[in-house]
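New to this. Please check both lines:
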Amino acid sequence: MMFGTGVGLMVALLVVTLLVVPVSLGVAARADAKVRRLAESRASHPNLTGSVAVADVDERCDRWRQLATRAWLICGGASLVAVAVVGVLIRVG
């Protein structure tokens, strides 16, 4: 086994995960904020005219909620990978 190549790959994986974590965290936070704003706007305007307007707000809220959930999962997964890679690098080096 080529020792240097394995460590190099681990470092590259760590760099990628350290880039993914803040990006996905930002996306998740923005999507959560959008969901809150949509829910507040719907609550502050209970007399939305027509079921089409209500359905549109509900659909947008659901899409933002799904995006937030995916982004939080990606952020958590990338964080776990980063911690595991650091642990391996500490044991190896």
In short: The chain has a mean pLDDT of 86.
